[in-house]
Amino acid sequence: MSGQQKTDRRLWWLLVVAAVVSVAWLLATFGLLGSTLEPDDRATVWGLLGDRLMLISLTWGAGMAAIAWGLKRWFDHWVTPSVQLAEEAQVLLRTDVVRELTPKGNVETKVLVGLFNQLVGQREDLRREMDAKVHEAAQGIEQEKSRLAALMSELTQSVVVCNLDGRIILYNNRARMQFRALSQAPGVAGGAELIGLGRSIYSVFDRKLVAHALENIQQRMLRGAGQPSAQFVTTTAAGQLLRVQMAPVRSAQAQAAESPADRIELSGFVLMLDNITRDYEAESAKDQVLHSLTEGSRSALANMQAAIDMLDYPDLEPAMRERFLGVIREETRTLSQRIGALEAGSADSLKTRWPLEDMLGADLVNAALRRIEVVTGLPASTVDVDSALWLKVESFSMLQALVYLTGRLADEFEVRFVQLRLAPAAGSPGKAQLDLIWSGQAMSTETVMSWEMDPMKVGHETTRLTVRDVVERHGGAFWFERERVRHQAFFRFLLPLANPQEQVDAAAFLKSESRPEYYDFDLFKTTEQTRTLDDRKLADLVYTVFDTETTGLNPSQGDEIIQIGAARIVNNKLLRQECFEQLVDPKRPIPAASIPIHGIQPEMVVGQPTIDQVLPAFHAFAQDTVLVAHNAAFDMRFLQLKEAQTGVVFDHPVLDTLLLSALIHPNQDSHRLEALAERFNVTVIGRHTALGDAMVTAEVFVKLIPMLAEKGIHTLGEAREAAQKTYYARIKY
């Protein structure tokens, strides 16, 4: 966008000084002349001049205009080219842009431009030599990268690597396809709103599930497990059932540490995902069919057996024989119909079921102790825990049940401490008994049943699950007992045992074409900040750079969005593979005059999603980021006018490359996107398409960040405050 160029302030100051000096000179001249005249002569002179003051003022004004014109020409020839040269040289100095500066202005400035171009050429020669040496030294790292790529390409599983804050730092293409299947709007965003470098994995998984799995891993590391891992199963917002295997990423200090306690320090974790929804639907359907066949056919088979037994009697009367044969035929027909109905409806039957994972019982008990103490504040300890027992449990819901029961004991019976006990179940092969023990007053059976049926409240959160739901998930049992000799009572859970195992079978990882195309290991160094975004450094933030194409330039007069394009910047890197691009049906004609600009024909938007569908997906794509656009006031106005219609509010912080350019280079002739691209040597591809303009804007913005730092602007708040003081911040839509 081009706009009116501001006149250099120094020119105005020189004009003011010239005006003051000229007026002072005139007054001094008149005063000096008056001091040499007699009073009568002085009166005569003043009388003559008084009638000609207008002529004197016009002459003075003409002289000042000539001075202004001369100063302006002098500035344009001597000062302005030097200032513009300094700004353009700053671009070459602070970024990796390589181009020759255009000579302009006076001879000395042109000579200086030539010398500067020579220095830039020498710098680039040195840089190329240095890059060659760095490339040679980095061959080992590149080889490791290639090995990682080859390893990732061998995996059929979806692989996602995160830092301890849950920010994604690596994922393979299979994970991208997996998240597309998990998306609630795959036709709009294609899963781009769920996965991406720097995005939080907690948009898909419950944070407490991941924290629980990390605790399990650290417990196994403390016991000296060489390759500890944890597993959990969860449902997604889209209703998918995922099995997740987690493995730790140790920090460099932890790998070199000698103490077991120091070796558990992690820098991140790896998640391997399997969508098991269809598998469990099919298995549940089979179980339902089996149940219906066994329970529903039992009486029919009994009737048939009784009839057959009666037919064995040789003296059975013909009428009675025919009657029993009729029973056999009727029961056979009924059984056949039942089997046919089960076969026809088995695909639609889905029994409520929750897959269980193998877990060392001692790990479950230790995790429960920590969770009870953190949530309820009660001291918790163990007694008689069999460390060799492996359980088949869904540990997250099991821990919720234990914490819930402990909390109610503390609130309603003033219990001051609890104990956990784990042992093989006496008289129940294949089962283990987990006891929650306390000392206190007696409890009625009605109270126990009430607690078992009430929705569980853990901390400040109330879940839809009950203790009975948890028990049924495990195919176990739950009851209350008192030990009168010890003056104790306990809740007992009967849980299924599992075969001992420490690691997942490596044969599960088979070949595929997936490549690790998306990674940024620098994110290992980032941590979540507790301060506000305005206090965060620009280089530490994640950005969504976007652009819109519209039917016209008047959002408040009915013009509509017809395309949205966006890209992401993470760790000062433009992620070209993580894009959002979507045509929008505006539900109104596209003016013919605008088609040559954006190239979108009316037939291209017919049948495309409407703005009600697209904006929520774009909002999810831009979640937890700073919005960036060129002339952002225009694009944001379109988004704000759709808030009531879509129910989506874009309250993100916003930066505008137009304002930032005017802040960095106030003396340049133009701040249009094309001018910025030329200034920063950015190749323009797909200009006046939403994604093309977003990509150009993103590249320009990346180059502006170090230049803002040179002006002392380091944080988001400082950038927003400084940008609002520029001339272009006055533009409204």
UniProtKB/TrEMBL annotation:
GO annotations of cellular component type: cytosol
GO terms, molecular function: 3'-5' exonuclease activity; DNA binding; DNA-directed DNA polymerase activity
Reactions this protein catalyses: DNA(n) + a 2'-deoxyribonucleoside 5'-triphosphate = DNA(n+1) + diphosphate
Segments passing through the bilayer: 12-33
Pfam family, one: RNase_T
Superkingdom assignment: Bacteria
Entry keyword Transmembrane: yes
InterPro entries noted in UniProt: DnaQ, Ribonucl_H, RNaseH-like_sf, RNaseH_sf
Keywords (A to Z) from UniProt: Membrane, Transmembrane, Transmembrane helix
UniProt xrefs under CDD domains: DEDDh (cd06127)
UniProt-listed Enzyme Commission number(s): 2.7.7.7
Domain Exonuclease: 542-710
One GO term (biological process): DNA replication proofreading
Role according to the record: DNA polymerase III is a complex, multichain enzyme responsible for most of the replicative synthesis in bacteria. The epsilon subunit contain the editing function and is a proofreading 3'-5' exonuclease.
Record note on quaternary structure: DNA polymerase III contains a core (composed of alpha, epsilon and theta chains) that associates with a tau subunit. This core dimerizes to form the POLIII' complex. PolIII' associates with the gamma complex (composed of gamma, delta, delta', psi and chi chains) and with the beta chain to form the complete DNA polymerase III complex.
Name the record gives this protein: DNA-directed DNA polymerase
